[in-house]
Design goal:
This protein has 235 residues and is an all-alpha fold. Helix content is 77%, strand content 0%. α3 runs antiparallel to α4, α6 crosses α8 and α7 runs antiparallel to α8.
Length: 235
């Protein structure tokens, strides 16, 4: 439930232009910080063979499903820390927790991409990063330019997310590859999530919830990055 003390606080779209711009700057600054922290933590993880080997050992069968389940629990807990608490330190703790969880679950996919990448500056990882940031920027611009409220997408995104999770579980249990079309569909889902989260930043969040807003954007950004990287790694 929403904090009663926050229920009458105006959302960002109802604030003055100066306050609204300040909120956007804080949100995207924290998003950039989350991305940089992800890169740092991922780099540190890859310096420790035991962590890499442990993550790779969880990529098959039930272990992968347990890892996904654990990641979902951490995600839910981190979002509550960032959104529900009145303590700013808890907001940051939730964001950091989520970034570390993302970095860990990304280890197998980045490992595969690194094995496939040829020497050179513009590797698969770089290509995926450029494509992800370009698409993220374009989708964000759509929300700001149109000023449209995309909250109506919540039900569709939720249903699509459950369907996708069901397919992932089925594919893992019965050993079939979901293939390129599934990854392409997930890119579309992630794109919709970016529209939704960017819209939430404007129409849902309060002035002091920029950390929670950045977490939502980061989650959608990383989902998009995951499936773009998956597509490029399978070429």
């Amino acid at each position: 439930m929403e904090n009663p003390q926050m229920s009458h606080t105006p959302v960002v779209s109802q604030l003055s232009d100066d306050v609204r711009v300040t909120f956007y700057k804080k949100t995207y600054a924290h998003l950039a910080g989350a991305v940089l922290l992800f890169i740092l933590v991922e780099t540190l993880f890859f310096q420790v063979d035991a962590i890499v080997n442990f993550a790779l050992s969880l990529t098959g069968g039930i272990s992968w499903l347990l890892l996904l389940g654990g990641f979902m629990l951490v995600t839910n807990y981190a979002e509550k820390m960032a959104l529900k608490s009145d303590n700013t330190n808890m907001h940051y703790a939730g964001l950091v927790l989520y970034v570390v969880a993302e970095a860990f679950i990304f280890i197998p996919l980045i490992f595969i991409a690194m094995m496939m990448a040829e020497d050179g500056a513009f590797s698969i990882l770089n290509q995926a990063a450029v494509l992800t940031l370009s698409l993220f920027t374009g989708l964000s611009a759509v929300v700001f330019i149109t000023k449209k409220d995309f909250s109506f997408m919540k039900s569709a995104l939720t249903i699509a997310g459950f369907i996708a999770m069901g397919l992932i579980v089925a594919g893992t249990l019965f050993g079939f590859n979901l293939g390129l079309w599934f990854s392409a569909g997930m890119v579309i889902l992630a794109s919709g999530s970016i529209l939704y989260q960017t819209s939430n930043m404007i129409h849902k969040y309060k002035e002091n919830q920029y950390v929670a807003a950045s977490l939502g954007l980061f989650a959608s950004l990383m989902l998009l990055f995951w499936y773009i990287l998956s597509i490029l790694s399978n070429d």
